[in-house]
Structure formats: structure tokens, C-alpha cells
Amino acid sequence: RVRIPLPVSNILWEHCIRLANRTLVEGYANVKKCSNEGRALMQLDFQQFLMKLEKLTDIRPIPDKEFVETYIKAYYLTENDMETWIKEHREYSTKQLTNLVNICLGTYINKKARQKLLATIDDTDRPKR
């Protein structure tokens, strides 16, 4: 056994938590189909994850917690709100944003509206390149 100093342990936990949260969002972005029940389960799963994590570590606040919560909540946005949300949340990848448009709004909006939102994603992504 090797004793790890608390500050080092906290840094390791922080990196692991951040990676786990980023992986959750990436997993949600790979969803092919999502019902209202599926969205609710995403939230429930993440809350369970946070409860277990809070028992394992004393790190507060949980790193990137808002990153995951914000992404899950975006599944509930309307077409008009989604355009604004896309412009305000550049921390998500093009793939993650595209999936939100195609999966959560795909069946509720027409092709023209979907293309407009996808163009917004492309326009938002261009300055980063």
C-alpha cells in the first residue's frame, strides 16, 4: 500500500470525476432515439451517480456537474429556445449539439427548421477552427 497525500488524492478524484462527466455527455450524444421516459432516466441516472460520488469523495462542488445537467436539460428545449441555447453553449462539441437537434427536436420540427438549427451549429463552430 502506498499512501497518497490528500491534496494529490483530491486532484486525482477531480480529474476522474471530470472525465466521467464528460463521458456521460458523450454517451448521451450517441443516443439514437430518446423518449420522454428516456430523458427522465438520464436525469435519474445522473442523480444516482452524484449521490454515490458524494459518498466516495469530499470534493465539492462536483467538477463539471453543470456540464452534464445543462446538456440533459437541453433535451427539453423548444425549437426557438434551442437556437439561443446553441449560441450560448459553445462548450459542447458539434457532434453533441447536432445530436440534440436531430434526436430531441427531430420528430417535432420540420426539415427547414432542423436545417436552420444545424446551420446555427456550423456558424457557431466556425470561429473555433
TrEMBL record:
PANTHER family the UniProt entry points to: SYNDETIN (PTHR13258)
A single GO molecular function term of this UniProt record: SNARE binding
Protein name in the entry: VPS50 protein
Native species: Promerops cafer (Cape sugarbird)
InterPro entries associated with the record: Syndetin_C, VPS50
Ranges where the Syndetin C-terminal domain occurs: 3-122
GO CC, alphabetical: cytosol; EARP complex
GO biological process: endocytic recycling; retrograde transport, endosome to Golgi
